[in-house]
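step 3/5: co-fold with magnesium ion
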Amino acid sequence: RQASSLAVWCGALVGAVLGDCVGGEFEGAEEVPMENVLRHLNGLDDETKGDGTLEYSDDTAMARCVVQSLLTRAGFDEQDMARRFAKEYSLAPGRGYGSGVIQVLKKLSSSQLSDVYQPARDQFNGRGSFGNGGAMRVAPFALAFPDLSDVKKYSRSGAMLTHSCSLGYNGAVLQALAVHLSLQGALELPAQFLDKLISEMEEVEDEEASRNDARALKEAEKPFCERLYRLRDLMDRSKVSIEEVICELGNGIAALHSVPTAIFCVLHCLQPRESLPPHYGGLERTMAYSLALGGDTDTIACMAGAIAGAHYGIEVIPEAWMKCCEGAKEAEVTAQRLHALYHQRAQGG
Ligand code: F2R
Ligand code: MG
Ligand code: MG
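step 4/5: write tokens
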């Protein structure tokens, strides 16, 4: 892997935006034939298409708030981040937000609010959201903090501004870990990458709150670990169908049914696959495969795009794709600023 450090930072943030913009076409579709995916992706090469024709959705809208907050505050500031989420929603409410999180975003705009985590705790009769909204926007945390413990701590806190159920915020922690490890080149050794994710999540899911939520929702004792073990089994099989992936890992709006799926998409597409064009590189394969799963395609492709982009770097992203996607060029610039923040922190600044 030859990509420079700056190239993988840009790849991560731009990969996430591409996944969101390109994946929006199929969000909510039950079945997505691969030929439809390839037709959609081929259409991105059409020179007559204007700049930014594919608009980003809530995934990128919220990730932009995370980026701006981390950069402006030179670290995590929950008040500032909450304010930015609320303002972004009030300015552009039509970006396809989850139906529950809208209530949180409205409450976060109140000047009377003393605890910015309270609206999220009140969701779903006090159980909190287990949606993937915390995970879909988490990549910038992985790009801003050099210490793994900070990545875990702040990605969790950032997700808890809207998702107080551990099945929501732990999904964000898992996604942040996957992006962070990928940035360090960990996907060169896929089996070790997965082992590391499992060992980190064993610790994360050992917390009492996580165990209680898992019990209340009748999930496995450590739900994300259990999915990662299923993922490992799928990887060991010589052939695996789209239906098996959906059945074992899911393709839905819950973090549990989408974050491990996104990680699988990246791992599965490290090598060429029969169903995908031979001229496709790894990032293109990951995008196409994520879309072909159907379901929450913008978010699964967004999360897979961040992990894959952190591995392959921005140079492999087709220029025509970048041009079509709203916010892609801006993501390249802000990734450079996150790269500087990361290195400043790494040097103790
Ligand atoms: N919302 C969507 N897609 C729907 C279609 C939008 C359409 N294109 C349009 O423009 O109208 N996509 C976006 O939402 C997902 C992220 O959602 P987030 O931020 O997690 O929202 P929320 O509301 O917290 O959770 C999502 C749904 O999950 C269910 N749920 C969550 N916790 C629950 C609980 N404790 N008990 C029961 N149900 C729970 C609810 O149905 C929530 O509405 C991304 O896909 C993003 O792209
Ligand atoms: Mg979306
Ligand atoms: Mg979505």
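step 5/5: annotate
The pocket of ADP-ribosyl-L-arginine (ligand 1) is lined by residues 27-28, 57-59, 96-101, 124, 127, 129-133, 136, 165, 253, 296, 298-299 (CB under 6 Å).
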